[in-house]
Amino acid sequence: LAWARLLLQGGDLPRAGGQAPPPVFTAPDAFEKFAQAVAREALSGTTWRSHFQHECSFPFLTELGKPDHPRRPDILLAESGATCAVGDTKYKDVLKEAASAELSTAKEVMVHIQHSDWNQLYVYMRMKKAVSGFFIVPFWNADGPPFDWIEHFGFKDCPSDGTERTAVLALNLLKPLADVKQKAAARLRTWLSAAPHEPLLPQPIPYSD
Questions:
Q1: CA distances from 50 to 8, 101, 148 (A)
Q2: How far is 135 from 155, CA to CA, in rounded Å?
Q3: pLDDT recorded at residue 131
Q4: Burial class of residue 35, CB neighbours in 10 A (0-12, 13-18, 19+)
Q5: pTM for the full model?
Q6: Which residue positions in the chain have pLDDT lower than 70?
């Protein structure tokens, strides 16, 4: 798949590689890297910072006074050291639960996000006091838009002390990667900008569906 080459070549579109053999990778790894690129692009030109699973960890339990059972969310978006949003990428679990014919829209993918995944997102939002939580998932639709988006739903009991917002961002892996990245990042940025964060993100990047 062309999108998987993103992991190997570090760019948005496939191009000729060098002489060195490519590293071993999996499709979920490649999708996670692409989701990270979208999150970074959404914060471009702002004072916000993105932190990914390999660089963010926080304790969940304590044993004999020592932190234990660390948790590592896929994506943390922070401003001035405070976590404002928590993100989770889903690829392998979604594919395992659905036939390919059922993965052509964000709504079709969303029903295959497991209860345990929603529980995990809730816990991460609660622990980090984040008002925004989101999933990034794949879908495949040659005739569809570069991305799909669902919001206006949420947890019955708010995980944060104030307003809580949740969303699902779906990336169309049958569209040009550069277009998917740019438009999906712009949508994510617009959504983050509308949250009750202080300070807010700068003016959102215009986007079109």
A1: 21, 33, 22
A2: 14
A3: 83
A4: buried
A5: 0.77
A6: 1-25, 53-72, 80-83, 99-101, 154-162, 196-209
Q: Residues 177, 57: contact at Cβ < 8 Å?
A: no
Beta bridge partners of 76: 51, 86
Angle (CA) 17-37-105 rounded to 5° is 105
Question: Residue 175, Cβ neighbours under 10 Å: how many?
Answer: 18
In eight-state DSSP terms, residue 58 is B
Query: What's the pLDDT tens digit per position in 76-89?
Result: 888 766 667 899 99
Q: Can you state the angle between helices 177-193 and 27-42, rounded to 10 degrees?
A: 50
Rounded Cα distance, 96 and 146, in Å: 23
C-alpha span between 172 and 145 (Å, rounded): 7
Q: What is the pLDDT of residue 61?
A: 54
Question: Which residue in 129, 67, 138 sits closest to 96, CA to CA?
Answer: 138
Distance CA 169, CA 150 (A): 7
Classify strands 82-89 and 132-139 as parallel, antiparallel or unpaired. Answer: parallel
- Distance separating alpha carbons of residues 18 and 23, to the nearest angstrom: 12
Predicted local distance difference test score (pLDDT) of residue 73: 79
Q: What is the pLDDT of residue 202?
A: 52
- The answer to whether 124 and 133 are in contact (CB under 8 A) is yes
What integer pLDDT is reported at residue 179 of this predicted model? Answer: 95
105 neighbors 209 (Cβ within 8 angstroms): no
